[in-house]
């Protein structure tokens, strides 16, 4: 579905990473692991076209036929480091007014809220919620619409053990429906996934 | 032409000649105009300030047009050198605008007895100065200079659309408030003796501008590309 | 799922969300309003309460105050979306981003411009605006403040994360045609002349400005993604 060949990125004449090769197929997971400043976020933003300057090849293929590559990322969901939860909106509105949620019915949203454990706060302002609860709203957004690929920047931060378990369950469940995940993190998670370590690349 | 190293090497050869040409034409024009052109029978010798005022005013506007063209090129084709050109041209353009305003105001004090008149042309020159200031201000506030170049290009492009509108609307505004009796536009029959040196002055100022622009652009290129290999080779010789 | 009206869906999404957000944060619409009234009040205080003087200056004063306050109001329009990552979603959406930017500016103008126009009606009493020209004032301000919002959005995008005064300096010289056109309309109206010509020029400026300025604004925001 996504194939990356010899990806390389510079920031003011400094190599952030180079020789990055990976491939994601339907239902696959890939973790990019590295310390702060190793360029994890850059990889994601680069794939999405948010950073225009790089060298290397990025092949997307939305169809089953992986030989037909297209240059698009229409069916991607991105969750950045900033998860875009507006404090003045209620949890419900934060779900509804999002990339995935604007076509969802109230029933769907209620169902998703129950799944991620925020059904009790749907009508509370997000400013009253804790960081972990906001994170759960963000997880809810994944479920509102099926995307082919989810690019998640450090989804495990600010979550308790139950939250981590929730993410693991959700990802496994969505893998079986054919969605793939590209995840960044400081340390490897318990997910079934290929893992790429960015730091080692730099030290070489 | 578009690549900075090429421009740098190319300009190294022609820049001294340009300087020579600029100095000759510039001083010839000023000498002729201030020293030898006939005295105006109405204004006396004060009118000679036009040999500075008019070339500066012409340049002030042309430089803005140049910047707008560069802005367009830099936005559409992402040509680095076009962005640097804006950066280098803006302070020079602002300088010429300021000279035009100051000399115009001195001239006004002698001929009309007032430092400032809200005439359409004076007003739009003043606005032009603000436009230059906006560009310089924006550029200096962005640390990443490549990014600053592109930000400034956006402003320059907006300017090319809006400058004619500004000129037009200032004209309307002027006719609407038809109270000032002065008109700058009437230079009914300037004798060739006065006109010819003015032409040379305009030429001289333009050469001076091109020389200043080249020099400033060369500096900008070296500064931006200081970490590139070709700059190191240029200044420290080929490394073994 | 219906994907045909996706762009419209996004437009409505941004509009609805921003409207809700601005109404929950009352400072959004109150601050420009109060700023406008304070600036208007300063003129009689500085120039003296002479009715004839104020009456002749009224249109200009109201216009300058409206211009400044709608410009200041729009200054922070993108910073929240940019900082909390919502802006990323616009650029990933594959929808034409300038439509979404337009939605934001339109919403902002509805929330901030409308109170300013209401306040200008009140200030026309304060400043003894000649009677019979109130309609011209509202007409010209409707378009003028919207144009200022568009221009201000470009300034805000260029000065994203920098000072408010910078975005004002960037934008103010470009707002001169709007100001001159607005005051031309007012002068014509006071002299009981036909001002429809000026009004249509302003309309034309707005018609070009909406797509043009929104596209430039997108370019300006993109600068922060490099």
What does this structure look like?
The complex is a heterotrimer of chains A (204), B (240) and C (226). Chain A is of the alpha/beta class and 204 residues long. Chain A folds into 2 domains: 1-75 and 147-204, P-loop containing nucleotide triphosphate hydrolases (Rossmann fold), CATH 3.40.50.300; 79-146. Chain A has 6 helices and 8 strands; from the N terminus they run βββαββαααβαββα. Chain B has one domain (4-177, 195-236). Chain B contains 7 helices and no strands. Chain B is flat and about 60 Å long. With 226 residues, chain C is mainly α. The chains are: A alpha/beta (204), B mainly alpha (240), C mainly alpha (226). The B-C interface holds B 75, 127, 130-131, 133-134, 137-138, 141-142, 146-147, 150-151, 154-155, 157-159, 161-162, 165-166, 169-170, 172-173, 176 and C 154, 158-159, 162-163, 166, 169-174, 176-177, 180-181, 183-184, 187, 205, 208, 212-213, 216, 219-220, 223, 226.
Brief overview:
The complex is a heterotrimer of chains A (204), B (240) and C (226). Chain A is an alpha/beta fold.
Oligomer: heterotrimer
State the end-to-end distance of chain B: 29 Å
Q: Give me the count of strands of chain C.
A: 0
Tally of helical runs of chain C: 10
Layout of strands and helices, then pairs:
The complex is a heterotrimer of chains A (204), B (240) and C (226).
Chain A: E1 2-11, E2 14-24, E3 29-33, H1 40-47, E4 55-60, E5 76-79, H2 91-96, H3 106-116, H4 131-144, E6 149-152, H5 161-176, E7 180-185, E8 194-197, H6 198-203
Parallel strand pairs in A: 3-7, 3-8, 5-6, 6-7
Antiparallel strand pairs in A: 1-2, 1-4
Helix pairs in contact in A: 3-4
Chain B: H1 4-36, H2 50-77, H3 80-111, H4 120-141, H5 145-176, H6 192-224, H7 229-236
Chain C: H1 6-24, H2 27-47, H3 51-73, H4 79-83, H5 86-92, H6 97-126, H7 134-158, H8 164-171, H9 176-190, H10 196-222
